[in-house]
């Protein structure tokens, strides 16, 4: 009996030793995992740097692609109420610029300019990119925007000055989709209005190292019968950002020292 047990033990030991000497074999699942390569993602385009108005590009006061200098803002296809508001606007910019009884909400009340209009001021902005969020930092009013990447809009965003933005990369372009605006801002310097139904799509693309192109599509079916798209170019600059804060006291001082003397009736001879 003892010899039979000894023989069985020796046979079992020999079998275990032979198994340990065999080359290791992977399971079908592990073989599949080894065959699959990690998915490669294209690197995000680089928008780093400070961007300012392109030198020599001239004035840019309207997003109407047929009238970028805002000489005839009433000619943009609009709903009747929107045309009336445009004709009633008294802006300090564009072809109908005036200092007489200005009703520009930025100039008069220091209201934020809103998403589309902020690109028209001769101030700089920069773009800060992270894997999940893009930040746009504007010199004018020290305004900053948060753009989550690869996310959906919330179902019913609260109306705000700059709306709710989400973004994604399409090749060399950053695409920013924004909804959820209030209706308190002008689209541009000449006074084109909008409603809370406003929907914008910004497409930012670096044409070359020193040139950034913004293609902006504006859609607001309550104010305009069809969407329209216009483009603006920005130049890479080494000038640091300055201090640009809207102050009611400074606006009042400008009114008293510049606007009032300029608009006062001249004494008759």
Overall body shape = globular
In whole angstroms, the N-to-C terminal distance is 141 Å
Rg calc: 31 Å
Structural class: alpha+beta
Beta-strand residue percentage: 15-25%
Please give the domain count. Answer: 1
Query: Number of DSSP helices?
Result: 6
Order of helices and strands: HHEHHHEEEEEEEEH
Major sheet attributes: 9 strands, antiparallel
Short description:
The protein has 269 residues and is an alpha+beta fold. The protein is 23% helix and 24% strand.
Topology record:
Elements: H1 2-21, H2 28-35, E1 50-53, H3 80-88, H4 105-109, H5 115-118, E2 125-129, E3 133-138, E4 143-148, E5 164-170, E6 173-179, E7 199-208, E8 211-219, E9 228-237, H6 248-263
Antiparallel strand pairs: 1-2, 1-9, 2-3, 3-4, 5-6, 6-7, 7-8, 8-9
Could you explain how this protein is built, in words?
- With 269 residues, this protein is an alpha+beta fold.
- The protein has one domain.
- The chain contains six helices and nine strands, in the order H-H-E-H-H-H-E-E-E-E-E-E-E-E-H.
- A nine-stranded antiparallel sheet has the order 4-3-2-1-9-8-7-6-5, with no helix packed on it.
- A hairpin with a 2-residue loop joins strand 7 and strand 8.
- It is globular and about 75 Å long.
- 24% of the residues are buried.
- Residues 1-35 have low confidence and may be disordered.
Overview features:
269 residues; alpha+beta; globular; disordered N terminus
